[in-house]
Design a protein that fits this description.
heterotetramer; A: alpha/beta; Rossmann fold; eight-stranded mixed sheet; 9 helices; 8 strands; B: alpha/beta; Pyruvate-ferredoxin Oxidoreductase, domain 3; 4 domains; seven-stranded mixed sheet; 23 strands; globular; binds thiamine diphosphate; binds iron/sulfur cluster; binds magnesium ion
């Protein structure tokens, strides 16, 4: 499929020139096109933040909801209509701070959705406060002497929760990130793709160059089915690995196990709404 | 003792099986053709404490809590002190003297020793005490044995012959004792039976809400457990496969409401069920519904606040919370069923209204309504099929196209050639984020314009009592039940009640009804008269006479009668 | 062009440094003895888009947004179209013809070419364009060079001699151009200087709130960033070590409010700062404050909703949200400073009130107040020391001892011989969970009794204008600024305004003020007239004349004048 | 110190006879007494649930707040007055479902508090729905065909977050649990003690017997400073290890790093509230 199918034409994009988000947008469009996903069958759910604006910039169905709350609607969309391809997208603050609880529990539920997190280690839209992934020592107008709390490690946590698919990528590397993203979308079950994304305005520490220098790719010696090895890799801190860390061997998929689909595979909106007889029976049982 | 209207109260610790007796007895009585009503009050604990249930058996339909106790069955020693303030010299106390006799002071009361424990032991063990108790009451009321026997077979046959047999024995022993008592205790009952009643249904308020949801086409519920609203979640879970309902226990209430909105977006008909504290967490989600013009159905089962308050008790303290919930300005609808029938019909209606007007719709109940039950005619299910107000989109579909009535046809993803774009930011007609400030004004106007359509189908308040009233009670939700019965008792031709089952927006007839009254009396279960404040906004009228209660129990018929009499004699 | 009151507007993309110009120019002007006022409007983005700031320079004190633009400096091509509706044939447009001249249509306007970019390049590079711009304006106004030079040294000396030197050059070039322009453009300014002004302070609303908090003894803030309220968090962070303030960026708003309550419990004086959407998440926490009778200070900076709405814009749409927030019933106080001075004094007062009455106190501002600034006399700090309303506990301490005024002395853990027990459930006097339903009623009464003490010190509304008015404007919060100036312009002796800085509970004089008016005009920045509804509850009066605005911008002086004139001529 | 110092005398305790909570209450009183902590210097913060009622049953200062919200006030209490000993206590639903986000971020902050979780793998107070730790197959009135989502693994997640101290215990073993608890309270920094607690009413699967049969103690061969090994142990599922899994070597303690304590170590309430001079200076800088 032609990636231009996802193109919005000449629109005003609210990102700063040079922002890593542009690259992620391109990667996303390319990956979806290569996967031959029709924009009409795609729903992107996002929260609020710079990253969360992404779905406005490609052709798709989109639910740009509340800050931190992308995962619950994304899970529900998939549950209401399993035929849709669903992506939940947002920033590191969005997914890991305000949305931290949903992050944990979405992983436990394991709906067949892809969770794309633009990890710029800062709050972009609200002008540069620390995010959960901000590194120690990062100085901001709130953390005036630098962050000293432990950065949130999304990969390690996801692996601890036995997430179905866990990967990290870098916006600066379009090719490999696209491949990782494609693998994530293709994966049946919840898939996390945490993407390092330089914020050229508010994060002068974790720049393109910094990410380039502080990352490397996992190679074939890494077995993504080995949870403990994946965890060890996720806790590396000298240089940060990129690639697919973990694929859980046997996770039940949320929507597949819903009783609503036991006898009927149709999306909810296609079902008959005549429930008179069933209701009559129910009422009779209350006699 | 009122011969045509009997009130039986059983009291004991949590875990002693009071609810088993309640279920058993009310079903049996209804089958026998009696009107029944049951209401319970219980503590927020799983074992111990003092819980009680009141079962009324009557010639007329009854649906309210009565202070008076005609027959009292204390199951433990604390039961007597727990309810002593409601016992009178008329009350007949059926007490197991062997078990608790020495520990309680029942000096001056009419006490009859009934050896529940011994009879149960004879039947097969202490767990049969509940069946003995049912038997005693059935015996006293002269119920034919076939009915409780049918119940035992129906309920227990899956547990094996032995269990059925022992229950039968326990029942027999109980009934025998009961028949004897009927004679010896001078019980002079004259409760009329009506064979039609045996074919009626018995439903608790919470079940009626649940069935109303199913009738309204609900096919998605995400919620977090919280008394007194959890019953809707469990009811729908039980019927999930049969009705095709996605049921999810969310990690918290925020997730629940956001799931519900995602579900509506994808074409489902979703609801949440919660109580005040859980709802407080959903307010940002309600505001999102307002912004994206999404339908949403919220069952808000009220309990006393603030904060955790009294988790298992009742109050009507969250009206203003719901009415003003969510930041920013957008339309909403609030329904407040007072009866179990209304709980069904209004919940069904909530889905219709939410879908049609693309707004959040609240169904506000409270613990007293949720847990109460009585017999009633089966609901009318004829001639309804759920209308879905969704459209197949075309290529140029714009979710928020500005229309004169404020409503834009609602498409869903994957159905049609269009794309469905929602944004929690202010947006253009397509749904994309905008900073066009003129468009902002038009979008606010569009959203608020939806109120017009909503106003065209407000449920009018129901006038109960004489049209030529000079004194008018105003109430909303469950309070109507005690009010109605108190009015029946008082039998005044100058007193009527206006029962509001839709509290927002208020029907235009409201002011007219109020204007006709010389005296208006506001009755509600909260401390600050929230509904009176609403009426003031709507009509400008200050209501001076108020009967307010906020100790966690519903109004009793007697206290309404007493307070009303006081006010009316002034 | 008004000779004693000049309005300068600079417009460009986010990131072009408009705020630098704003800061620089206003400080310089104030030092020169001019009254200044600045207000900005900006998009929710970090780069690009169109943002603008208006700087007023006046003989009189000015504190409101004016539609009129006397001098317009467009920094990019979109600036002209962004503000074209406010340009007139009188407007002098200072435009860099080389840079954007060919891209914009300024046919019919008074345009003067000012080569900002070239002058900046000559001074050392494009980043000096802002200093050139300041220079041009300073030159036009005939400011003596020493003042902007002082500013440059003060601000930039830490960046090295080179930076200072280049700024000096840029300034010089700008001033030279400006002086020339003053003559050639026929600018005939007559703005009075006042040497006292140079010693005044300039503070933005958000800084005044922050300093008010420090003055009120705030030593704990936990919040989650959200426009337009984040400034309080950053301000306190900056001064955390000096003032001994625990500052924590919470993971979400729920955590923030619960931290604040924990902090008060342990003896701190805590606040949260948030906007509508974040506040919606705090409601359960507010209810908890109500139940545990905890002080709590909430700065609620309003922006347009529902949901994410317009994140960087202004509105007064969350009044009812705050007033009815939290489930259950309990007292609260809502302050709504309209001026920057009031923002300081009322925030300070909020801590006093919260601590004394053990209730949540809201300070409601909005983006327009938060971001605006003007010169004013330094605040009066004399004779105040923060009173702490905590007691040393004794062995038998009971946190919720029932007293006639509803207030129980507040102890904190570790201070005294007692134990401090709080419970979100209904509790007894000690604070332990209870199911005693009579006690429940007494506890509700106790909590609500606290309202009496609160009512004894309500801030009365401020009457502005003639005491013998027949037309009365009612407004709250920041709207007063445009109203005040519009009234000054209109100069009517029958028109007054009643400015409410405490909106709940309302002062008892309110009804009297309203009763005296023949016509009442409600002015507020929302679509449904929330404050008018409040007044109706309080007074029963329906206010028919309303001026409402909800496009995200504050009222301008002119539009209030125009709409008022329309209403008054009817 | 005599554990009776913590005794409330003859009070009505709202738990079911046989509930594991009684045992935890005893352990808690004993541990605190052995640590010689004066009840006046102790604050227990709890949420809502059966477990969260615990502080009402011993003599202490207590803040029994909202469901799921024990950790933020506990963190704040410690920050406002570091001299207090602070315990945050609650059930598995309280801490890991409603309170999940605070759990993550409290661990990142690392205040010097002890987090005691009564893990009965069920919602007790609301009558038996699944909790995040309910095991697969657990049937409830909501999960009518049994839980199929992945149980939350609090230990693995805590270790993934590099929690300062991570332990698991069993209410049925008073001795060892008391020792673990003492170690946790003594530990400087955030300490998690997840305690298996039989709920005799709503959890008929994970009974005393079940826990006994499905647990074992970590022995000296386990090095609690080895994060990856700790993680591996935390993911064991055949038999569940008990004991101290992990102690992070070098975590900054939240309140120690607050700027409010840089120049002044006094609890906030003991400080002078005369700020006139400082405010004057601030105002002058706004000229
Ligand atoms: C409930 C709520 N709280 C706070 C905000 C303000 N807010 C918007 S985006 C954001 C954080 C942005 O950071 P991140 O999620 O990392 O996204 P980025 O902009 O860096 O892509 C915040 C705090 C909000 N919109 N809603
Ligand atoms: C906001 C909110 N949502 C829901 C509830 C209802 N609620 C009280 S306790 C509880 C869960 C109890 O389970 P757990 O935390 O595991 O404690 P346990 O009773 O098992 O000890 C729930 C859902 C509440 N009080 N507040
Ligand atoms: S602020 Fe940062 S994240 Fe946002 S658009 Fe600019 S560079 Fe990108
Ligand atoms: S319900 Fe379970 S957890 Fe609660 S007290 Fe009873 S046994 Fe304990
Ligand atoms: Mg970010
Ligand atoms: Mg539990």
């Amino acid at each position: 499929m032609d990636a231009r199918l996802y193109d919005m034409g000449n629109i005003d994009i609210a990102w700063c020139p040079g922002c890593g988000n542009f690259s992620i947008l391109t990667i996303l469009k390319d990956a979806l096109a290569e996967l031959e996903i029709d924009p009409h069958d795609l729903v992107i759910v996002s929260g609020i933040g710079q990253a969360a604006k992404t779905p406005h910039y490609l052709k798709c169905n989109l639910f740009n909801g509340l800050h931190g709350r992308a995962l619950p609607p994304a899970t529900a969309v998939k549950a209401a209509n399993p035929r849709l391809t669903v992506i939940a997208e947002g920033g590191d603050g969005d997914m890991y701070a305000e949305g931290g609880n949903h992050f944990i529990h979405a992983i436990r539920r394991n709906p067949d959705i892809t969770n794309v997190v633009h990890n710029n280690m800062v709050y972009g839209l609200t002008k540069g406060q620390a995010s959960p992934t901000s590194q120690k020592g990062f100085v901001t107008p709130v953390q005036i002497t630098g962050v000293y709390v432990e950065p949130f490690n999304p990969l390690a946590v996801a692996i601890a929760l036995d997430a179905s698919f866990v990967a990290r990528a870098f916006a600066g590397d379009q090719e490999q990130t696209r491949e990782i993203l494609k693998q994530a979308v293709r994966h049946k079950g919840y898939a996390l793709v945490d993407i390092f994304q330089p914020c050229v305005t508010f994060n002068k520490i974790n720049t393109y160059k910094w990410f380039k220098e502080h990352t490397y790719y996992l190679d074939e010696t890494h077995d993504p089915r080995d949870r403990v090895a994946a965890f060890a890799r996720a806790t590396e801190s000298e240089r940060l690995p990129l690639g697919v860390f973990y694929i859980s061997p046997d996770r039940a998929v949320f929507e597949d196990n819903l009783l609503a689909y036991r006898d009927n595979k149709e999306p909810l909106y296609l079902r008959s709404t005549d429930r008179q007889e069933k209701l009559s029976n129910l009422l009779n049982s209350s006699k | 003792m009122n011969s045509s209207d009997l009130s039986v109260v059983i009291c004991g610790e949590a875990g002693q099986g009071i609810q088993t007796v309640e279920h058993f007895l009310t079903r049996v009585l209804k089958h026998a053709g009696y009107n029944v009503f049951a209401t319970k009050e219980y503590m927020s604990r799983i074992r111990g404490g003092s819980n009680s249930t009141e079962i009324r058996i009557s010639s007329r339909r009854v649906y309210a809590f009565l202070d008076r106790i005609d027959i009292f069955i204390p199951l433990d020693k604390d039961a007597v002190s727990h309810l002593r303030h409601r016992l009178s010299s008329e009350t007949l106390i059926l007490m197991d003297a062997e078990k608790i006799g020495t520990q309680v002071d029942v000096e001056g009361y009419r006490v009859v020793n009934v050896p529940f424990s011994r009879l149960a032991a004879e039947a097969g063990g202490p767990i049969y005490a509940n069946t003995v108790a049912v038997g005693v009451l059935a015996g006293m009321l002269g119920i034919e044995a076939g009915i409780p026997e049918w119940y035992i077979k129906d309920r227990f046959s899956s547990k094996g012959e032995d269990v059925v047999g022992k229950n039968m024995q326990a029942l027999g022993k109980g009934m025998e004792t009961g028949s004897g008592l009927a004679a010896s205790s001078g019980l002079n009952l004259d409760i009329t039976k009506d064979s039609q009643i045996s074919d009626e249904i018995i439903l608790a308020g919470i079940e009626a809400v649940s069935m109303g949801a199913l009738a309204g086409g609900c096919d998605f519920i995400a919620s977090y457990p919280m008394s007194p609203s959890t019953g809707v979640l469990t009811f729908l879970a039980e019927h999930a496969a049969d009705f095709g309902v996605v049921v999810e226990q969310a990690e918290d209430e925020i997730s629940a409401v956001n799931m519900a909105l995602g579900a509506w977006y994808a074409g489902a008909r979703a609801m949440v069920t919660t109580a005040g504290g859980g709802f407080a967490l959903m307010e940002e989600g309600v505001s999102l519904a307002g912004m994206i013009e999404s339908p949403l159905v919220i069952h808000l089962g009220q309990r006393p606040g603030p904060a955790t308050g009294l988790p298992t008790r009742s109050e009507q303290g969250d009206l203003e919370l719901a009415l003003y919930s969510g930041h920013g300005e957008f339309p909403r609808i609030i329904l407040a069923p007072g009866t179990i029938e209304d709980a069904f019909y209004l919940t069904r209606r909530a889905f219709y209204l939410a879908d049609k007007h693309q707004v959040p719709v609240f169904i506000m109940t409270d613990q007293s309504l949720a847990d109460a039950f009585y017999n009633m005619a089966p609901f009318d299910l004829s001639g309804f099929e759920v209308e879905r107000h969704i459209v197949e989109t075309d290529k140029d579909y714009r979710r928020y196209v500005i229309t004169p009535d404020g409503l834009s046809p609602r498409g869903i993803p994957g159905y049609g050639d269009g794309l469905v774009v929602l944004d929690s930011d202010e947006h253009d007609e397509e749904g994309h984020i905008t900073e066009d400030l003129d468009l902002r004004t038009r979008m606010v106007d569009k959203r608020l314009a939806g109120m017009k359509g909503i106003e065209a189908e407000i449920i009018p308040p129901e006038l109960i009592g004489p049209a030529g009233y000079s004194n008018l009670i105003v109430c909303w939700g469950s309070t109507i039940n005690a009010v109605r019965e108190a009015m029946e008792r008082m039998g005044r031709d100058d007193l009527a009640a206006l029962y509001f089952k839709q509290v927002h927006p208020l029907h235009q007839d409201t002011a007219g009804y109020l204007a006709k009254a010389g005296k208006i009396i506001n009755i509600e279960s909260n401390a600050t008269a929230q509904f009176a404040r609403l009426l003031k906004i709507h009509t400008g009228l200050d209501i001076e006479d108020k009967i307010l209660k906020y100790n966690g129990l519903p109004f009793s018929v007697e206290e309404i009668e007493e307070k009303l009499s006081g006010i009316l004699s002034m």
